[in-house]
Amino acid sequence: MSNFSIGVDLGGTNLRIAAVDEHGQLLEKITLGTKVVRGKDHVIHEMTGAIQQLAAKHGHAGALQGMGIGVPGIIDIKTGMLRESPNLPGWANTNVRAEIEERLGTRVILENDANAAALGEKWLGAARDVEDMAMLTLGTGVGGGIVLAGRIFHGMTGMAGEFGHITVEAEGVPCPCGNRGCLEQYASATAVVRMAREAMTGGRGGALARAASSDSEFSAKAVYNLAIQGEEEARKIFGRVGRALGIGIADLVNALNLPMYVVGGGVSSAWEAFSPFIFEELRQRSMVYAATAPALLTDGHGASAQVEPGGPTKTIITRALLGSDAGLYGAARLPMMGNS
Amino acid sequence: MSNFSIGVDLGGTNLRIAAVDEHGQLLEKITLGTKVVRGKDHVIHEMTGAIQQLAAKHGHAGALQGMGIGVPGIIDIKTGMLRESPNLPGWANTNVRAEIEERLGTRVILENDANAAALGEKWLGAARDVEDMAMLTLGTGVGGGIVLAGRIFHGMTGMAGEFGHITVEAEGVPCPCGNRGCLEQYASATAVVRMAREAMTGGRGGALARAASSDSEFSAKAVYNLAIQGEEEARKIFGRVGRALGIGIADLVNALNLPMYVVGGGVSSAWEAFSPFIFEELRQRSMVYAATAPALLTDGHGASAQVEPGGPTKTIITRALLGSDAGLYGAARLPMMGNS
Questions:
Q1: Is B230 exposed, middle or buried (0-12, 13-18, 19+ CB in 10 A)?
Q2: What is the band of A306 on the pLDDT scale with cuts at 50, 70, 90?
């Protein structure tokens, strides 16, 4: 018999609810489509129904420690207000936490999904052997999270870790956030597809055009498939992904000097294609990285094994290990951490 | 009778040693020129002599809590090794802490000078009412420091806070660190003078040329004097200073969501000339700033009075208050903080 908690990963596409025990063992996972078009009340109704179902089913075997819910967007951590959430139309500026708590009749912990993913990778993934880390999640957008002393670092109002909006090109591509040249405009799945379309429009990338016409769900994945087959334009696109990440991560290394930076999210499955460019930029752009890089060049695989017993002294950049479950595990971890 | 400690600010030009009591009251300050050309042993001999003098003199009135020493350069905080220090030729890759401790026969705390300045401003300056803050020090180079929960955040090896090497222009001016477009290349005193020379070489900036010929110590200060007199080229230079700072601070606000960012160092005396450009860039480039900016536009004066009783919720960017003493007070604060 071990204690457990319930984690929720509320995405724009999937709504996943899991019961996870205190050792990180998955007890049960429910995956539902997020029926965004049916509105917030409907989604919250489905979510709380699944939470209650898991709580009742597994409550006989252990004590329920609480619920953690990862949501996309900017959350005011003190009030529980969702400030902005492009993937959940109509949810912005509503008190999502209060609505869920009212429905469940109990407290829940609301967290930004990228923060939850960082905590998940720290608990059970690539960063399990370090206490301080940052994670970049490359999905539809680019999210981020910072973990210090094993806990999510929220900053003043819960908005720390917005790495997707670090400026990597001062006069670069306009971003809906109001800035130009945000990391998100070069390293998200959306950006990969946009860059592929730009290459086609520019008359280059014949193979990209063929992939586009043969695949109605023309996606970052299709561009990656071309890149690993050696298609030049597709490779160039992941070069830009890696260079932009290199600039952004170099800024973080110079500012924070953390032992580990984890790259996750859907686009990170193209790690082989873009990561060499990250390391190339980092070596040039970060004196702190140069002073702390592992002696052997590494693409980071098995990096967690490299953490020294006396505390880390090398900067490890590595890919995430938990895939799309990082946020779900992180959300489940939240109630286990006391006041988080 | 109150406890006191001794702080040292070891700069490339001045060596200052102060006895400061636990309330932040200056007991005595000794200012010596840093005779860099006479070598490290000589400088350390002068420093330890002054420390012993102050310790003996004020030890009758209170208990000496320890010594803190701020040095320019990258310090490995665990070992006490000075890794790089452009302003102290010949000091790099020596164990400065061990040499000082041997001479004094007691432990000392070695700290990066910009980290010490951040702690000084947190203790007695612009950030005294917040627990989390970052400081950028605009001097010969651009240094930085992060304070979290009232203490210097060192990162893994003591190198956190190297804000001078954040990339603000991906293909910008080469920096001796190996990167291009570092903040330091646009916002340091060195950069101000370089930009003034570039303006002259470009045939622009007649007034700059006259200032240069009339002032053998042609300095950032002379450029600032022209800017406040309305000289167009000089004003443009501080526009570039402010815009570069705006990009760098926007990155920090997006990544860290701290309640306060303090701008200090010699160049910060030109705050009126460059700060409007910081705020202009910030509003555009940081969604986190946009969500947390004070309701009234402010240049930050009196900002510490704006911190709310229930904890800060607004992002304040303000100039430092302690001038060139920030690092000295911060160094003196170090031994008062226990294991720092």
A1: exposed
A2: low
Does A173 reach chain B within 8 Å, measured CB to CB? no
How far is the C-alpha of A205 from the C-alpha of A212, rounded, in Å?
Answer: 10
Q: Report residue A339's pLDDT band, with 50, 70 and 90 as the boundaries.
A: low
What's the pLDDT score for residue A24? 97
pLDDT in tens, A89-125: 889 999 999 999 999 999 999 999 999 999 999 999 9
- Cα B197–chain centre separation: 25
CA–CA distance, A18 with A333 (Å, rounded to integer):
11
Q: Which helix (H) or strand (E) holds A213?
A: helix A206-214
> 3-state DSSP call for residue A195?
helix
Strands, E assignment, chain B:
4-10, 14-21, 26-33, 64-71, 74-76, 81-84, 109-112, 133-138, 142-148, 151-152, 260-264, 316-319
In angstroms, the CA B136 to CA A126 distance is: 32
How does pLDDT run across B215-228, given as a tens digit for each residue? Answer: 656 688 899 999 98
Closest CB from B74, B161, B288 relative to A162: B288
Interface test mutation site (partner A, options B281, B288, B289, B292, max chain A beta carbons within 10 A): B288
Between B15 and A77, residue with greater pLDDT: B15
3-state SS assignment for residue B68 = strand
Within 10 angstroms of residue A203's Cβ, the number of other Cβ atoms is 8
Interchain CB distance below 8 Å, A170 and B169: yes
- In angstroms, what CA-CA distances link B71 with A30, B7, B130, B318? 56, 11, 25, 24
pLDDT value of position B321:
97
Q: With the C-alpha atoms ordered B108, B340, A311, A283, is the resulting torsion angle positive or negative?
A: negative
* DSSP of B40-58: HHHHHHHHHHHHHHHHHHH
Asked if the C-beta of B264 comes within 8 angstroms of chain A's C-beta atoms, the answer is no
Look up the pTM and report it: 0.93
**Is B141:B190 a contact under the CB 8 Å cutoff?**
yes
Instruction: Please name every residue paired with A134 in a beta bridge, in sequence order, or none if there are none.
Output: A146, A261
Q: φ, ψ for residue B268 (rounded to 5)?
A: -70, -10
Section B81-96 average pLDDT: 88
DSSP characters over A12-72: SSEEEEEEEETTS-EEEEEEEE--GGG-HHHHHHHHHHHHHHHHHHHTTTS-EEEEEEEES
Residue B320 makes CB contacts below 8 A (sequence gap 6+) with: B117, B121, B125, B126, B135, B137, B262, B263, B264, B265, B268, B326
State the average pLDDT over residues A75-87: 87
